[in-house]
Please model this.
Amino acid sequence: MTNPIADLRMSEASELAHAWVQWQCRALGIRSLLIKGPGLAHHGLREKRVSSDVDVLVHPADFDVAVHALEAAGWRRRVSTFAADRYTLHSVALTAPGWPCDVDVHRFYPGFLEDPATVFDVLWDRRDSFTLAHVDCEIPDRLSAVLVLALHSLRSRSSDPRHASELRTLLARVDLDADERVDLAALAAATGCDQTLSDVLSSLGIPRPPLQDSPALREWRLRVDSGATPTYMWFSLFRRAGHDRFAVLRHALWPSAADLRIMYPDLPATPAARVGARVRRWGRGLRAFPRVVLAARRTRNGR
Amino acid sequence: MTAWLRSPVAWVDDGDRVVIVCLRAPLGPARLLTGSAAIIWRALDDNELRSVETITATVAGDADIDPEHIVDDITTFLVSLRSDGLAVAPSMEEGDE
Model:
């Protein structure tokens, strides 16, 4: 008999889980694309590194079927906080016993402002493939991957320097010829990221399109300009909470013990430690608040 | 003689150890192969049936051992791979029906 492994390394788990997830989707007749992760290194857009998540994009109409199938196969939804439950609408994070990596199933990718079904079809029609863990896997083609990585870098927390570094690396590595610039501009327009990525595309030699303002674009700019901090997230939740605003404010100021356990797994399980953690959050929130307000003001004024 | 090939699996190999997961749902535990087990695994193919003789000759060549001394162990190991869903022997599957 072979032995179940006791010390599955993240590098092994990540590669195996990418291949496994895509195989399951294919077996169900679900089109899926492995976004970010090893596909980016395959295209030479960033250094090869171990991904702790499997990011898989499916057609929005297939999202529930894909998630239910993975749940039936042994994956469980990761327990998330009050805020993450309400803010993270684009994906679901799944975990499995014995597997150190998460699987994030995406119904759309933030920053692509076109209809999610249209975006998926555009990306799917241009897909590429490569072999991972001895399994053929489908990924966005190189230009699509440029857009995905740029969106990912821009929308991530500005406090993590890795994302800014990845964007700089991306811009340094991507050298487009005239045909590719035309192709990338058309792809960005078709997927609705020509506005969200206008600075990045301009750096790649693509002329900026005329500004087409929309609520989705304003929300994107607010997120990017505010540094995607937790304070921004609460601000955004509060603005769209409607009658639920009191609950949002209460959780923002006084997160539950369960939320604190998720946010700070090493926090001692004592009332004093929890109060201390909440007070420290106020400090961070207050320091980040002016940037969010300024970003909101700039966004409202159309910059 | 029975011929073998790998089941649909994902597997990684860093040269010291092979880690495998069966692609058929549900998600099972990843399996670890090291030493001679990893060598036998590498001697199998994803698509092409290989006889025990061929597999034994490959392993014996890699390990510099007399094939006659290892053929029984290799056969036993291949059967265990089949039990774990990691390898198939079509002639044995037919015999099962």
